[in-house]
Amino acid sequence: MRRRARPDAPDGRVRLVYQRFRRAAGWLSARVLARWRRSLQLRVVTSALLASSVMTVALGLFVVHRVTDGLVVAEKEQALEQLASGVTYLGDELSSIKGQDDPELDSVLRQAARNLSDRGSRATDFAVAVLPTGNRRLSPKYVPRYSPDDVRPPAQLTGLIATGEQRGYQFTRTSLDDRPARPFLVVGAPVDTQAGRFDLYYFVPLDDQVATVSLVQNSLTAIGALLLLLLAAIAGIVARQVVTPVRVAARTAERLSAGLLEERMVVRGEDELARLAHSFNQMAANLQRQIVQLENLSRLQQRFTSDVSHELRTPLTTVRMAADVIHAASDTFPPALARSTELLSNEVDRFESLLNDLLEISRYDAGAAVLDPEDTDVRTIVTRTVDGLAQLAERTGSELEVVLPDEPVVAEVDPRRVERILRNLVGNAIEHGEGRPVKITLASDADALAITVRDYGVGLRPGEAQAVFDRFWRADPSRARQTGGTGLGLSISREDARLHDGWLQVWGWPALGAQFRLTLPLRRGERLAAAPLPLAPADAGSRYPRAIEAAPRALPAGAAHPALTPGPADAAGTEEEQDA
Protein backbone atom coordinates (compact mmCIF):
# COMPACT_ATOMS: atom_id res chain seq x y z
CA MET A 1 0.00 0.00 0.00
CA ARG A 2 1.40 3.39 -0.99
CA ARG A 3 1.81 5.90 1.80
CA ARG A 4 1.24 9.55 1.21
CA ALA A 5 4.17 11.85 1.95
CA ARG A 6 3.64 14.09 4.96
CA PRO A 7 3.85 17.85 4.37
CA ASP A 8 6.56 18.18 7.05
CA ALA A 9 8.75 15.54 5.36
CA PRO A 10 11.61 16.87 3.17
CA ASP A 11 10.13 15.55 -0.07
CA GLY A 12 6.71 16.84 0.99
CA ARG A 13 8.10 20.33 1.58
CA VAL A 14 9.88 20.28 -1.77
CA ARG A 15 6.69 19.20 -3.52
CA LEU A 16 4.72 21.91 -1.72
CA VAL A 17 7.27 24.57 -2.70
CA TYR A 18 7.22 23.31 -6.29
CA GLN A 19 3.43 23.43 -6.45
CA ARG A 20 3.39 26.96 -5.05
CA PHE A 21 6.04 27.98 -7.54
CA ARG A 22 4.01 26.51 -10.40
CA ARG A 23 0.88 28.31 -9.25
CA ALA A 24 2.77 31.58 -8.90
CA ALA A 25 4.38 31.14 -12.32
CA GLY A 26 1.02 30.30 -13.89
CA TRP A 27 -0.63 33.30 -12.26
CA LEU A 28 2.19 35.61 -13.35
CA SER A 29 2.21 34.29 -16.93
CA ALA A 30 -1.57 34.67 -17.13
CA ARG A 31 -1.32 38.27 -15.91
CA VAL A 32 1.46 39.03 -18.38
CA LEU A 33 -0.45 37.47 -21.29
CA ALA A 34 -3.61 39.34 -20.32
CA ARG A 35 -1.67 42.58 -20.11
CA TRP A 36 -0.02 41.83 -23.48
CA ARG A 37 -3.38 41.22 -25.16
CA ARG A 38 -5.06 44.29 -23.70
CA SER A 39 -2.29 46.90 -23.96
CA LEU A 40 -1.35 48.26 -27.38
CA GLN A 41 1.23 50.51 -25.75
CA LEU A 42 2.97 47.52 -24.14
CA ARG A 43 3.13 45.70 -27.47
CA VAL A 44 4.53 48.75 -29.26
CA VAL A 45 7.17 49.42 -26.58
CA THR A 46 8.14 45.73 -26.41
CA SER A 47 8.43 45.45 -30.20
CA ALA A 48 10.54 48.63 -30.38
CA LEU A 49 12.70 47.38 -27.50
CA LEU A 50 13.26 43.99 -29.13
CA ALA A 51 14.15 45.54 -32.48
CA SER A 52 16.49 48.03 -30.77
CA SER A 53 18.10 45.23 -28.75
CA VAL A 54 18.82 43.20 -31.88
CA MET A 55 20.30 46.23 -33.64
CA THR A 56 22.34 47.25 -30.57
CA VAL A 57 23.75 43.75 -30.09
CA ALA A 58 24.60 43.46 -33.78
CA LEU A 59 26.30 46.87 -33.79
CA GLY A 60 28.19 46.07 -30.58
CA LEU A 61 29.44 42.77 -31.94
CA PHE A 62 30.58 44.51 -35.13
CA VAL A 63 32.44 47.22 -33.19
CA VAL A 64 34.10 44.70 -30.86
CA HIS A 65 35.09 42.57 -33.83
CA ARG A 66 36.62 45.52 -35.66
CA VAL A 67 38.49 46.73 -32.55
CA THR A 68 39.80 43.23 -31.84
CA ASP A 69 40.97 42.79 -35.43
CA GLY A 70 42.72 46.16 -35.36
CA LEU A 71 44.52 45.45 -32.11
CA VAL A 72 45.56 41.97 -33.21
CA VAL A 73 46.85 43.16 -36.59
CA ALA A 74 48.83 45.97 -34.98
CA GLU A 75 50.35 43.63 -32.40
CA LYS A 76 51.17 41.04 -35.06
CA GLU A 77 52.97 43.57 -37.26
CA GLN A 78 54.97 44.90 -34.31
CA ALA A 79 55.90 41.39 -33.18
CA LEU A 80 57.03 40.40 -36.68
CA GLU A 81 59.17 43.55 -36.93
CA GLN A 82 60.79 42.74 -33.61
CA LEU A 83 61.33 39.15 -34.79
CA ALA A 84 63.11 40.37 -37.91
CA SER A 85 65.35 42.63 -35.79
CA GLY A 86 66.08 39.71 -33.46
CA VAL A 87 66.99 37.41 -36.36
CA THR A 88 69.46 40.01 -37.64
CA TYR A 89 70.97 40.53 -34.20
CA LEU A 90 71.33 36.80 -33.50
CA GLY A 91 72.97 36.25 -36.90
CA ASP A 92 75.47 39.03 -36.25
CA GLU A 93 76.34 37.66 -32.83
CA LEU A 94 76.95 34.16 -34.20
CA SER A 95 78.94 35.33 -37.21
CA SER A 96 82.20 35.06 -35.24
CA ILE A 97 81.57 31.40 -34.41
CA LYS A 98 83.51 29.14 -36.78
CA GLY A 99 81.52 25.94 -36.34
CA GLN A 100 79.30 23.76 -34.21
CA ASP A 101 82.29 22.59 -32.12
CA ASP A 102 83.37 26.09 -31.13
CA PRO A 103 83.61 26.18 -27.30
CA GLU A 104 82.35 29.77 -27.24
CA LEU A 105 79.05 28.82 -28.89
CA ASP A 106 77.13 28.04 -25.69
CA SER A 107 78.13 31.25 -23.89
CA VAL A 108 77.44 33.35 -26.99
CA LEU A 109 73.96 31.86 -27.33
CA ARG A 110 73.17 32.52 -23.66
CA GLN A 111 74.36 36.09 -23.85
CA ALA A 112 72.55 36.72 -27.15
CA ALA A 113 69.27 35.33 -25.77
CA ARG A 114 69.66 37.53 -22.65
CA ASN A 115 70.38 40.58 -24.80
CA LEU A 116 67.39 39.85 -27.05
CA SER A 117 65.16 39.65 -23.96
CA ASP A 118 66.56 42.93 -22.60
CA ARG A 119 66.30 44.72 -25.94
CA GLY A 120 62.53 44.20 -26.15
CA SER A 121 60.25 47.06 -25.19
CA ARG A 122 57.86 44.57 -23.64
CA ALA A 123 56.79 43.95 -20.09
CA THR A 124 58.33 41.30 -17.91
CA ASP A 125 55.95 38.72 -19.39
CA PHE A 126 57.75 39.03 -22.70
CA ALA A 127 59.82 35.91 -23.41
CA VAL A 128 62.51 34.90 -25.92
CA ALA A 129 63.50 31.33 -26.75
CA VAL A 130 66.43 30.15 -28.91
CA LEU A 131 66.30 26.49 -29.97
CA PRO A 132 69.44 24.90 -31.49
CA THR A 133 68.84 22.20 -34.10
CA GLY A 134 71.10 19.19 -34.62
CA ASN A 135 73.74 20.05 -32.01
CA ARG A 136 73.72 17.75 -28.97
CA ARG A 137 76.57 19.62 -27.27
CA LEU A 138 74.27 22.60 -26.67
CA SER A 139 71.29 23.06 -24.34
CA PRO A 140 67.98 22.16 -26.06
CA LYS A 141 66.49 25.56 -25.28
CA TYR A 142 67.89 28.96 -24.25
CA VAL A 143 65.29 30.94 -22.34
CA PRO A 144 66.27 33.94 -20.14
CA ARG A 145 64.18 34.85 -17.06
CA TYR A 146 61.82 31.84 -17.31
CA SER A 147 62.07 28.13 -16.86
CA PRO A 148 62.76 26.45 -20.20
CA ASP A 149 60.14 23.83 -19.43
CA ASP A 150 57.44 26.52 -19.18
CA VAL A 151 58.30 28.19 -22.47
CA ARG A 152 57.02 25.75 -25.10
CA PRO A 153 56.53 26.94 -28.69
CA PRO A 154 53.33 25.59 -30.29
CA ALA A 155 53.85 22.37 -32.20
CA GLN A 156 52.09 23.72 -35.28
CA LEU A 157 54.40 26.75 -35.43
CA THR A 158 57.56 24.68 -34.90
CA GLY A 159 56.46 22.36 -37.68
CA LEU A 160 55.92 25.34 -39.97
CA ILE A 161 59.41 26.72 -39.20
CA ALA A 162 60.95 23.27 -39.74
CA THR A 163 59.58 23.16 -43.30
CA GLY A 164 61.81 26.11 -44.22
CA GLU A 165 59.44 29.04 -43.83
CA GLN A 166 61.27 32.28 -43.11
CA ARG A 167 58.87 33.31 -40.34
CA GLY A 168 55.48 32.45 -38.88
CA TYR A 169 53.07 33.30 -36.06
CA GLN A 170 50.38 31.61 -34.01
CA PHE A 171 47.90 32.69 -31.33
CA THR A 172 47.77 30.37 -28.33
CA ARG A 173 46.85 30.19 -24.66
CA THR A 174 49.72 29.32 -22.39
CA SER A 175 51.45 30.33 -19.16
CA LEU A 176 55.10 31.27 -18.59
CA ASP A 177 54.85 30.96 -14.83
CA ASP A 178 52.42 29.73 -12.17
CA ARG A 179 49.59 32.04 -13.27
CA PRO A 180 46.58 30.72 -15.26
CA ALA A 181 46.90 30.40 -19.00
CA ARG A 182 46.21 33.56 -20.98
CA PRO A 183 46.44 34.61 -24.67
CA PHE A 184 49.89 34.93 -26.28
CA LEU A 185 51.12 35.73 -29.78
CA VAL A 186 54.08 33.49 -30.65
CA VAL A 187 56.27 34.46 -33.62
CA GLY A 188 59.22 32.47 -34.84
CA ALA A 189 61.88 32.35 -37.58
CA PRO A 190 64.96 30.25 -38.40
CA VAL A 191 68.53 31.73 -38.17
CA ASP A 192 71.11 30.02 -40.41
CA THR A 193 74.77 30.54 -39.39
CA GLN A 194 78.17 28.80 -39.76
CA ALA A 195 77.53 27.29 -36.33
CA GLY A 196 74.31 25.68 -37.51
CA ARG A 197 70.63 26.51 -37.62
CA PHE A 198 68.83 28.10 -34.67
CA ASP A 199 65.07 28.79 -34.26
CA LEU A 200 64.20 32.09 -32.61
CA TYR A 201 60.78 32.50 -30.90
CA TYR A 202 59.15 35.50 -29.27
CA PHE A 203 56.27 35.02 -26.80
CA VAL A 204 54.26 38.24 -26.82
CA PRO A 205 51.51 38.55 -24.15
CA LEU A 206 48.16 40.00 -25.25
CA ASP A 207 47.05 41.25 -21.83
CA ASP A 208 46.83 44.86 -22.95
CA GLN A 209 44.76 43.92 -25.98
CA VAL A 210 42.43 41.74 -23.88
CA ALA A 211 42.02 44.58 -21.38
CA THR A 212 41.28 47.01 -24.21
CA VAL A 213 38.69 44.70 -25.75
CA SER A 214 37.10 44.13 -22.32
CA LEU A 215 36.96 47.87 -21.76
CA VAL A 216 35.32 48.36 -25.16
CA GLN A 217 32.83 45.55 -24.45
CA ASN A 218 31.93 46.92 -21.03
CA SER A 219 31.58 50.42 -22.43
CA LEU A 220 29.39 49.22 -25.28
CA THR A 221 27.28 47.15 -22.86
CA ALA A 222 26.71 50.12 -20.57
CA ILE A 223 26.03 52.46 -23.48
CA GLY A 224 23.72 49.87 -25.10
CA ALA A 225 21.76 49.40 -21.89
CA LEU A 226 21.35 53.14 -21.45
CA LEU A 227 20.42 53.46 -25.10
CA LEU A 228 17.80 50.71 -24.78
CA LEU A 229 16.31 52.38 -21.72
CA LEU A 230 16.23 55.68 -23.58
CA LEU A 231 14.64 54.05 -26.63
CA ALA A 232 12.07 52.31 -24.41
CA ALA A 233 11.20 55.64 -22.79
CA ILE A 234 10.95 57.34 -26.17
CA ALA A 235 8.83 54.49 -27.58
CA GLY A 236 6.61 54.61 -24.49
CA ILE A 237 6.10 58.37 -24.84
CA VAL A 238 5.39 58.13 -28.57
CA ALA A 239 3.07 55.14 -28.13
CA ARG A 240 1.28 56.93 -25.30
CA GLN A 241 0.68 59.94 -27.51
CA VAL A 242 -0.93 57.67 -30.10
CA VAL A 243 -2.66 55.21 -27.77
CA THR A 244 -4.17 57.77 -25.39
CA PRO A 245 -6.64 59.14 -27.99
CA VAL A 246 -7.52 55.57 -28.94
CA ARG A 247 -8.23 54.76 -25.28
CA VAL A 248 -10.32 57.91 -24.97
CA ALA A 249 -12.23 56.92 -28.10
CA ALA A 250 -12.78 53.40 -26.70
CA ARG A 251 -14.08 54.77 -23.38
CA THR A 252 -16.30 57.23 -25.21
CA ALA A 253 -17.64 54.43 -27.42
CA GLU A 254 -18.37 52.31 -24.34
CA ARG A 255 -20.30 55.19 -22.77
CA LEU A 256 -22.19 55.74 -26.00
CA SER A 257 -23.08 52.04 -26.14
CA ALA A 258 -24.25 52.29 -22.51
CA GLY A 259 -26.76 54.93 -23.53
CA LEU A 260 -24.82 58.10 -22.69
CA LEU A 261 -25.39 59.66 -26.09
CA GLU A 262 -24.06 63.07 -25.03
CA GLU A 263 -20.48 61.79 -24.63
CA ARG A 264 -17.91 63.37 -26.97
CA MET A 265 -14.13 63.36 -27.43
CA VAL A 266 -12.06 66.48 -26.75
CA VAL A 267 -10.50 67.83 -29.96
CA ARG A 268 -6.97 69.23 -29.53
CA GLY A 269 -4.86 70.55 -32.38
CA GLU A 270 -5.23 69.97 -36.10
CA ASP A 271 -3.30 66.74 -36.66
CA GLU A 272 -4.55 63.27 -37.64
CA LEU A 273 -5.64 62.46 -34.07
CA ALA A 274 -7.62 65.68 -33.92
CA ARG A 275 -9.31 64.78 -37.18
CA LEU A 276 -10.04 61.34 -35.74
CA ALA A 277 -11.66 62.92 -32.69
CA HIS A 278 -13.65 65.31 -34.87
CA SER A 279 -14.85 62.47 -37.11
CA PHE A 280 -15.72 60.37 -34.07
CA ASN A 281 -17.76 63.21 -32.57
CA GLN A 282 -19.54 63.74 -35.87
CA MET A 283 -20.32 60.02 -36.07
CA ALA A 284 -21.60 60.05 -32.47
CA ALA A 285 -23.81 63.06 -33.23
CA ASN A 286 -25.26 61.34 -36.29
CA LEU A 287 -25.83 58.13 -34.33
CA GLN A 288 -27.50 60.08 -31.55
CA ARG A 289 -29.78 61.78 -34.02
CA GLN A 290 -30.66 58.51 -35.72
CA ILE A 291 -31.21 56.71 -32.40
CA VAL A 292 -33.45 59.49 -31.13
CA GLN A 293 -35.44 59.32 -34.36
CA LEU A 294 -35.73 55.55 -34.12
CA GLU A 295 -36.76 55.78 -30.48
CA ASN A 296 -39.42 58.31 -31.36
CA LEU A 297 -40.66 56.14 -34.22
CA SER A 298 -40.64 53.04 -32.02
CA ARG A 299 -42.46 54.90 -29.28
CA LEU A 300 -45.04 56.15 -31.76
CA GLN A 301 -45.44 52.66 -33.19
CA GLN A 302 -45.88 51.12 -29.75
CA ARG A 303 -48.34 53.81 -28.76
CA PHE A 304 -50.22 53.38 -32.02
CA THR A 305 -50.43 49.60 -31.55
CA SER A 306 -51.53 49.97 -27.95
CA ASP A 307 -54.03 52.74 -28.71
CA VAL A 308 -55.50 50.93 -31.69
CA SER A 309 -55.78 47.72 -29.69
CA HIS A 310 -57.55 49.49 -26.86
CA GLU A 311 -59.76 51.52 -29.18
CA LEU A 312 -60.79 48.41 -31.11
CA ARG A 313 -61.74 46.56 -27.97
CA THR A 314 -64.98 48.55 -27.45
CA PRO A 315 -66.41 48.12 -30.98
CA LEU A 316 -65.16 44.53 -30.98
CA THR A 317 -67.16 43.87 -27.81
CA THR A 318 -70.25 45.25 -29.52
CA VAL A 319 -69.61 43.17 -32.64
CA ARG A 320 -68.99 40.17 -30.44
CA MET A 321 -72.32 40.56 -28.69
CA ALA A 322 -74.14 40.98 -32.00
CA ALA A 323 -72.34 37.95 -33.48
CA ASP A 324 -73.31 35.83 -30.47
CA VAL A 325 -76.95 36.86 -30.79
CA ILE A 326 -76.98 36.10 -34.51
CA HIS A 327 -75.14 32.80 -34.03
CA ALA A 328 -77.62 31.75 -31.33
CA ALA A 329 -80.44 32.12 -33.85
CA SER A 330 -78.54 30.50 -36.73
CA ASP A 331 -80.70 27.34 -36.53
CA THR A 332 -83.64 29.29 -37.96
CA PHE A 333 -81.61 30.69 -40.89
CA PRO A 334 -81.28 29.22 -44.36
CA PRO A 335 -78.12 27.07 -44.80
CA ALA A 336 -76.12 29.75 -46.65
CA LEU A 337 -76.96 32.39 -44.05
CA ALA A 338 -76.22 29.95 -41.22
CA ARG A 339 -72.80 29.23 -42.74
CA SER A 340 -72.08 32.95 -42.99
CA THR A 341 -73.10 33.37 -39.35
CA GLU A 342 -70.65 30.62 -38.35
CA LEU A 343 -67.84 32.23 -40.35
CA LEU A 344 -68.62 35.59 -38.77
CA SER A 345 -68.39 34.11 -35.28
CA ASN A 346 -65.08 32.36 -36.09
CA GLU A 347 -63.54 35.49 -37.56
CA VAL A 348 -64.64 37.53 -34.55
CA ASP A 349 -62.90 34.96 -32.33
CA ARG A 350 -59.76 35.23 -34.42
CA PHE A 351 -59.95 39.01 -34.40
CA GLU A 352 -60.22 38.98 -30.62
CA SER A 353 -57.20 36.66 -30.35
CA LEU A 354 -55.21 38.93 -32.67
CA LEU A 355 -56.14 41.94 -30.59
CA ASN A 356 -55.02 40.19 -27.40
CA ASP A 357 -51.72 39.19 -29.01
CA LEU A 358 -51.13 42.74 -30.23
CA LEU A 359 -51.69 44.02 -26.71
CA GLU A 360 -49.22 41.42 -25.36
CA ILE A 361 -46.63 42.35 -27.99
CA SER A 362 -47.04 46.03 -27.16
CA ARG A 363 -46.33 45.22 -23.50
CA TYR A 364 -43.09 43.47 -24.45
CA ASP A 365 -42.08 46.32 -26.75
CA ALA A 366 -42.71 48.81 -23.99
CA GLY A 367 -40.85 46.68 -21.43
CA ALA A 368 -43.97 46.42 -19.29
CA ALA A 369 -44.29 42.64 -19.28
CA VAL A 370 -44.10 41.29 -15.74
CA LEU A 371 -43.44 37.71 -14.70
CA ASP A 372 -45.60 36.19 -11.97
CA PRO A 373 -43.59 33.10 -10.94
CA GLU A 374 -44.66 30.39 -8.55
CA ASP A 375 -43.52 26.87 -7.74
CA THR A 376 -45.37 24.64 -10.20
CA ASP A 377 -45.18 21.04 -11.28
CA VAL A 378 -44.57 21.49 -15.01
CA ARG A 379 -46.08 18.08 -15.72
CA THR A 380 -49.55 19.50 -14.92
CA ILE A 381 -48.98 22.34 -17.41
CA VAL A 382 -48.01 19.87 -20.13
CA THR A 383 -51.00 17.63 -19.36
CA ARG A 384 -53.42 20.56 -19.33
CA THR A 385 -52.08 21.86 -22.64
CA VAL A 386 -52.35 18.46 -24.33
CA ASP A 387 -55.87 17.95 -23.06
CA GLY A 388 -56.89 21.35 -24.39
CA LEU A 389 -55.59 20.56 -27.89
CA ALA A 390 -56.77 16.95 -28.04
CA GLN A 391 -59.89 17.76 -30.10
CA LEU A 392 -57.83 19.73 -32.63
CA ALA A 393 -55.41 16.79 -32.93
CA GLU A 394 -58.30 14.38 -33.50
CA ARG A 395 -59.75 16.66 -36.16
CA THR A 396 -56.44 16.78 -38.08
CA GLY A 397 -55.65 13.08 -37.53
CA SER A 398 -52.52 13.70 -35.43
CA GLU A 399 -51.81 11.56 -32.39
CA LEU A 400 -50.35 13.34 -29.36
CA GLU A 401 -47.62 11.30 -27.65
CA VAL A 402 -46.59 12.58 -24.22
CA VAL A 403 -43.43 11.43 -22.40
CA LEU A 404 -43.32 12.65 -18.80
CA PRO A 405 -40.96 11.73 -15.95
CA ASP A 406 -42.33 9.80 -12.99
CA GLU A 407 -41.05 12.32 -10.44
CA PRO A 408 -42.52 15.84 -10.18
CA VAL A 409 -40.70 18.58 -12.08
CA VAL A 410 -41.16 21.59 -9.82
CA ALA A 411 -39.89 24.89 -11.21
CA GLU A 412 -40.32 28.56 -10.36
CA VAL A 413 -42.23 29.67 -13.49
CA ASP A 414 -45.25 31.67 -14.56
CA PRO A 415 -47.79 28.91 -15.35
CA ARG A 416 -49.88 31.11 -17.64
CA ARG A 417 -46.94 32.05 -19.86
CA VAL A 418 -45.46 28.55 -19.96
CA GLU A 419 -48.86 27.12 -20.90
CA ARG A 420 -49.16 29.74 -23.64
CA ILE A 421 -45.74 28.72 -25.01
CA LEU A 422 -46.69 25.05 -25.05
CA ARG A 423 -50.08 25.79 -26.59
CA ASN A 424 -48.42 27.70 -29.42
CA LEU A 425 -45.76 25.00 -29.96
CA VAL A 426 -48.16 22.05 -29.89
CA GLY A 427 -50.71 23.91 -32.02
CA ASN A 428 -48.01 24.79 -34.53
CA ALA A 429 -46.87 21.13 -34.62
CA ILE A 430 -50.46 19.92 -35.19
CA GLU A 431 -51.00 22.47 -37.97
CA HIS A 432 -47.78 21.53 -39.83
CA GLY A 433 -47.66 17.86 -38.85
CA GLU A 434 -49.57 16.59 -41.92
CA GLY A 435 -51.68 14.31 -39.74
CA ARG A 436 -48.62 12.50 -38.37
CA PRO A 437 -47.90 11.97 -34.64
CA VAL A 438 -46.75 14.85 -32.46
CA LYS A 439 -44.42 13.93 -29.59
CA ILE A 440 -44.11 16.05 -26.43
CA THR A 441 -41.23 15.19 -24.08
CA LEU A 442 -40.39 16.66 -20.67
CA ALA A 443 -37.08 16.10 -18.87
CA SER A 444 -35.11 17.85 -16.15
CA ASP A 445 -31.79 17.82 -14.33
CA ALA A 446 -30.47 19.58 -11.25
CA ASP A 447 -30.57 23.06 -12.82
CA ALA A 448 -33.00 23.16 -15.74
CA LEU A 449 -35.98 21.57 -17.44
CA ALA A 450 -36.56 21.08 -21.14
CA ILE A 451 -39.70 20.41 -23.17
CA THR A 452 -39.45 19.28 -26.78
CA VAL A 453 -42.34 19.27 -29.28
CA ARG A 454 -41.57 17.04 -32.26
CA ASP A 455 -43.61 16.82 -35.47
CA TYR A 456 -42.99 14.85 -38.66
CA GLY A 457 -44.55 17.28 -41.12
CA VAL A 458 -43.18 19.59 -43.78
CA GLY A 459 -40.21 20.74 -41.70
CA LEU A 460 -38.19 23.86 -42.47
CA ARG A 461 -36.69 24.59 -45.84
CA PRO A 462 -33.23 26.20 -46.17
CA GLY A 463 -33.52 29.94 -45.72
CA GLU A 464 -36.78 29.73 -43.77
CA ALA A 465 -35.52 28.78 -40.34
CA GLN A 466 -34.25 32.21 -39.31
CA ALA A 467 -37.73 33.68 -39.87
CA VAL A 468 -39.60 31.20 -37.66
CA PHE A 469 -39.88 33.61 -34.75
CA ASP A 470 -40.65 36.70 -36.85
CA ARG A 471 -44.01 38.34 -36.39
CA PHE A 472 -46.73 37.34 -38.86
CA TRP A 473 -44.35 34.98 -40.68
CA ARG A 474 -45.80 31.92 -42.41
CA ALA A 475 -43.82 29.14 -44.08
CA ASP A 476 -46.45 28.82 -46.81
CA PRO A 477 -48.64 31.93 -47.30
CA SER A 478 -51.12 29.91 -49.36
CA ARG A 479 -51.55 27.34 -46.59
CA ALA A 480 -54.85 27.61 -44.67
CA ARG A 481 -54.55 27.82 -40.89
CA GLN A 482 -56.16 24.98 -38.99
CA THR A 483 -55.88 26.56 -35.59
CA GLY A 484 -57.00 30.08 -36.39
CA GLY A 485 -53.64 31.50 -35.25
CA THR A 486 -52.70 35.14 -35.51
CA GLY A 487 -49.08 34.81 -36.70
CA LEU A 488 -47.75 36.19 -33.40
CA GLY A 489 -47.73 33.01 -31.33
CA LEU A 490 -44.05 32.05 -31.78
CA SER A 491 -42.91 35.66 -31.34
CA ILE A 492 -44.80 35.89 -28.05
CA SER A 493 -43.52 32.46 -27.04
CA ARG A 494 -39.93 33.57 -27.59
CA GLU A 495 -40.49 36.67 -25.46
CA ASP A 496 -42.11 34.54 -22.75
CA ALA A 497 -39.08 32.23 -22.75
CA ARG A 498 -36.68 35.14 -22.52
CA LEU A 499 -38.71 36.62 -19.69
CA HIS A 500 -37.98 33.38 -17.79
CA ASP A 501 -34.24 33.68 -18.71
CA GLY A 502 -34.75 30.59 -20.84
CA TRP A 503 -34.23 29.48 -24.43
CA LEU A 504 -36.64 28.69 -27.22
CA GLN A 505 -34.92 26.86 -30.06
CA VAL A 506 -35.96 24.94 -33.14
CA TRP A 507 -34.45 22.25 -35.33
CA GLY A 508 -35.89 21.57 -38.77
CA TRP A 509 -35.24 19.91 -42.11
CA PRO A 510 -37.44 19.48 -45.20
CA ALA A 511 -39.59 16.33 -45.10
CA LEU A 512 -38.11 15.36 -41.72
CA GLY A 513 -40.28 17.62 -39.64
CA ALA A 514 -39.24 19.99 -36.90
CA GLN A 515 -38.59 19.99 -33.19
CA PHE A 516 -38.93 22.95 -30.83
CA ARG A 517 -37.13 22.92 -27.50
CA LEU A 518 -38.08 25.09 -24.53
CA THR A 519 -35.41 25.25 -21.81
CA LEU A 520 -36.12 26.98 -18.48
CA PRO A 521 -34.12 27.26 -15.24
CA LEU A 522 -35.67 25.51 -12.25
CA ARG A 523 -34.99 28.51 -10.04
CA ARG A 524 -35.55 32.12 -10.95
CA GLY A 525 -32.44 34.15 -11.73
CA GLU A 526 -30.10 31.24 -12.48
CA ARG A 527 -28.20 31.21 -15.75
CA LEU A 528 -28.65 28.24 -18.06
CA ALA A 529 -25.57 26.27 -19.02
CA ALA A 530 -27.03 23.22 -20.78
CA ALA A 531 -30.35 21.61 -21.70
CA PRO A 532 -31.48 18.19 -20.40
CA LEU A 533 -32.70 17.22 -23.90
CA PRO A 534 -30.85 17.46 -27.23
CA LEU A 535 -32.08 19.98 -29.76
CA ALA A 536 -31.99 17.70 -32.80
CA PRO A 537 -34.12 14.53 -32.47
CA ALA A 538 -32.32 11.22 -32.47
CA ASP A 539 -34.59 9.81 -35.19
CA ALA A 540 -33.46 12.52 -37.65
CA GLY A 541 -30.00 11.00 -38.06
CA SER A 542 -26.67 12.83 -38.09
CA ARG A 543 -26.74 13.85 -41.76
CA TYR A 544 -29.02 16.83 -41.23
CA PRO A 545 -27.46 19.13 -38.59
CA ARG A 546 -29.52 22.19 -39.51
CA ALA A 547 -31.08 24.24 -36.75
CA ILE A 548 -32.12 27.74 -35.79
CA GLU A 549 -32.39 29.04 -32.26
CA ALA A 550 -33.87 31.91 -30.33
CA ALA A 551 -30.87 32.67 -28.12
CA PRO A 552 -30.93 34.36 -24.70
CA ARG A 553 -30.58 38.11 -24.70
CA ALA A 554 -27.19 38.12 -22.98
CA LEU A 555 -24.34 35.68 -22.52
CA PRO A 556 -21.10 36.01 -20.56
CA ALA A 557 -18.19 37.47 -22.49
CA GLY A 558 -16.36 34.74 -24.38
CA ALA A 559 -18.92 32.07 -23.44
CA ALA A 560 -20.35 29.83 -26.13
CA HIS A 561 -24.08 29.37 -26.36
CA PRO A 562 -25.00 25.89 -25.11
CA ALA A 563 -26.87 25.14 -28.28
CA LEU A 564 -23.65 25.73 -30.20
CA THR A 565 -22.24 22.58 -28.66
CA PRO A 566 -23.39 19.81 -31.01
CA GLY A 567 -24.83 16.69 -29.49
CA PRO A 568 -24.85 13.28 -31.11
CA ALA A 569 -26.94 14.57 -34.00
CA ASP A 570 -27.40 18.28 -33.61
CA ALA A 571 -25.59 21.50 -34.39
CA ALA A 572 -27.07 24.93 -34.08
CA GLY A 573 -26.54 28.64 -34.59
CA THR A 574 -28.11 31.62 -32.88
CA GLU A 575 -30.91 33.01 -35.03
CA GLU A 576 -28.88 32.23 -38.10
CA GLU A 577 -29.06 29.16 -40.31
CA GLN A 578 -25.87 27.23 -40.90
CA ASP A 579 -25.21 25.19 -44.01
CA ALA A 580 -25.27 21.47 -43.52
TrEMBL record:
Q: What is its EC number?
A: 2.7.13.3
The name of this protein is Sensor histidine kinase MtrB
Domain of life the protein comes from: Bacteria
What's a single GO MF annotation on this record? kinase activity
Q: Does the keyword Lyase apply?
A: no
* Signal peptide range in chain numbering: none
Mind telling me which Pfam families this protein's record contains?
A: HAMP, HATPase_c, HisKA
The membrane-spanning stretches of this chain are 44-64
InterPro entries linked to this entry = HAMP_dom (IPR003660), HATPase_C_sf (IPR036890), HATPase_dom (IPR003594), His_kinase_dom (IPR005467), HisK_dim/P_dom (IPR003661), HisK_dim/P_sf (IPR036097), MtrAB_MtrB (IPR047669), Sensor_HK_Regulatory (IPR050736)
Q: Where is this region: Disordered?
A: 555-580
Gene symbol here is mtrB
The residues covered by the Histidine kinase domain are 307-524
Q: Where is the composition biased (Low complexity)?
A: 555-569
The yes or no answer to whether the keyword Transmembrane helix is present is yes
Q: What does it catalyze? A: ATP + protein L-histidine = ADP + protein N-phospho-L-histidine
Organism (species): Cryptosporangium japonicum
Leading EC class: transferase
The subcellular localization recorded is:
Cell membrane
Question: Which SUPFAM superfamilies does the record associate with it?
Answer: ATPase domain of HSP90 chaperone/DNA topoisomerase II/histidine kinase, HAMP domain-like, Homodimeric domain of signal transducing histidine kinase
Q: Which keywords does the record carry?
A: Kinase, Membrane, Phosphoprotein, Transferase, Transmembrane, Transmembrane helix, Two-component regulatory system
Q: Which residues form the HAMP domain?
A: 240-292
